[in-house]
Amino acid sequence: MGKTPMSKSKGPAGQGKSAGAKRRLMLWMTFMVVFIIWAGYTFLVQTAQISDKSSHLAAQQASKEETQKKLDQLKYEVSRLKDPEYIGQLARKKGYYLPEETPIQVEESGN
């Protein structure tokens, strides 16, 4: 009964623990490398999507500003149409006059 336990000897059992630890370390490192590659890929894809959406948003905002300017111009023109003096000016440009008005036409000299 002079047998010694296997764990104290530096034979195959001691090498098995070292090999198992190396295997676990390699598995862990493989997992970490795959995870980092996946995270990097996801980051790059999302950055590209954000860039595309930002440029689209900038274009939409420019379009909105242009449309807002047109709307403001149209509102201004509508407010001017409520003024009788402005309506008279438009009518005179088209050749319409009030009954008591006498149109004066200026002829250009051909010098």
What does the model show?
- The structure is a single chain.
- With 111 residues, the protein is an all-alpha fold.
- It has a domain of 75 residues.
- The N and C termini lie far apart (138 Å).
- It is built from 2 helices and no strands.
- It is 72% helix and 0% strand.
The amount of helix comes to over 70%
Number of helices: 2
Q: What is the β-strand count?
A: 0
Mean pLDDT: 86
Residue windows where pLDDT falls under 50 for at least 5 positions: none
- From the N-terminal CA to the C-terminal CA, the straight-line distance is 138 Å
Oligomeric state, counting identical vs distinct chains: single chain
Content of β-strand? under 5%
| Biggest sheet features | none
The radius of gyration over CA amounts to: 43 Å
Tell me the overall shape. rod-shaped
Structural class per helix/strand content? mainly alpha
Order of helices and strands: HH
InterPro entries: FtsL/DivIC (IPR007060)
Keywords: Cell cycle, Cell division, Membrane, Transmembrane, Transmembrane helix
Pfam families: DivIC
Protein name: Cell division protein DivIC
